Amino acid sequence: MKTIKQLLSMKKDNEKISMITAYDYPSAKQAQNAQIDTILVGDSLGMVVLGYDSTVEVTIEDMIHHAKAVRRGAPDTFVVVDVPFGAIGIDLATDIQHSIKLYKDTKANAIKIEGAHVELIERCTKIGIPIVSHLGLMPQSVGITGYKLQGSSKEAGNKLIDEAKQVEQAGAVMLVLEAIPSDLAKVISDKLTIPVIGIGAGKDTDGQVLVYHDMLNYGSEHIAKFVKQYGDFSKGEEALKLYNKEVKDGIFPSEAHTYKKKIMGENNA
Ligand code: KIV
Ligand code: NA
Where, by residue number, does 3-methyl-2-oxobutanoate bind (predicted)? Predict the structure, then answer.
C-alpha cells in the first residue's frame, strides 16, 4: 500500500499518481490488481450505483456500507472515502463526530471533504484523520453552481489558489481539483507541496482520477468531456439478452452445465 509519504515523494519525483473510484468488492479488487495507486469511494456512488439524481441524497450509512466492501476488496490499496452531503457544515463538534465515524467504521486511509472547511481540516488532522480536500466543481453544491467549469474568471481563479493554499496549510494530505481550466490546475499543482489529483483539470496535475462506471461505460447516462472510456461494460446487456433468449429457447442449460444422475450422491461436486 502506498503511504502518504510515498504519494508525496511521487509528486516530488514527477511520478504521476493514479486514482479510480470503486464502490464494491469486485471493482476494488480489480483496481488493486491493476496496481492503481489510490481508490476513492466517491459519493458519486449515489448516481452511478444507487440511481439518485445527484450526490445530495447519499448518507453516511451508504458511504460506510460501500467503503467496507471496498476495503475488503482492496486491503492493500490507499482508500479515500467521501464525506457525504449533510454530514458536515452543521457545527464543528458534530462535523468532527461524523468525520471520526466515517474514518473509524470504514478503516479508510483518508476521508475527502468538499470545500475549504479549514477549521475542520485542522481539527481532523490534529486528532489523526488524514484529509483529502476537494475544490473546483463540487457536486454536493450542484444546486448552486450546476455542473459547470469552475475558476474560469480571474477572481474565481485567485480565490481557488487561495483556498488550495489554505487547505494545505490546515493539514490536507492531498487535493482533488474538478472541472477547472488546465492552466489554473497547473498553477495550483506547482504552488502546493501535497499531491493534486485532477478530474477535468488537464494533464499537469500530479495525478488523475476517473469514475469507474464512466470510464468503463457501465450504465452511465451522461459522459462529461473529460472522461475517456477505456472499456465497454455496456456489452453486459448483450450477454443478458442472449441468456434470456437461451432460457426461452431451451438452449440453456446444455449438457455441459448439467449434473448427471449417475454422479448424484457420489461425486456430486
Ligand atoms: O465522488 C466522486 O467520484 C468524486 C470524484 C469525481 C473526484 O468526488
Ligand atoms: Na465526490
Answer: 43-44, 82, 112
Which whole-number Å values give the CA distances from 164 to 181, 209, 212, in the listed order? 15, 18, 26
Cβ–ligand 1 distance for 209 under 6 Å, the answer yes
Q: Which of 41, 83, 209 to mutate to test the pocket of ligand 1 (most atoms within 8 A of CB)?
A: 209
Q: Which of 65, 66, 61 is nearest to 28 (CA)?
A: 66
What is the mean pLDDT of each successive set of 10 residues along the chain, which is 269 residues long? 98 98 98 98 97 96 98 98 98 98 98 98 98 98 94 98 98 98 98 98 98 96 92 96 98 95 61
d(CA 95, CA 32): 31
Please give the domain boundaries of the chain with CATH numbers for all domains: 4-231 (3.20.20.60), 233-269 (no CATH)
Say yes or no: CB of residue 41 within 6 Å of ligand 1.
no
pTM higher than 0.90, yes or no?
yes
Cell of 206: 500530479
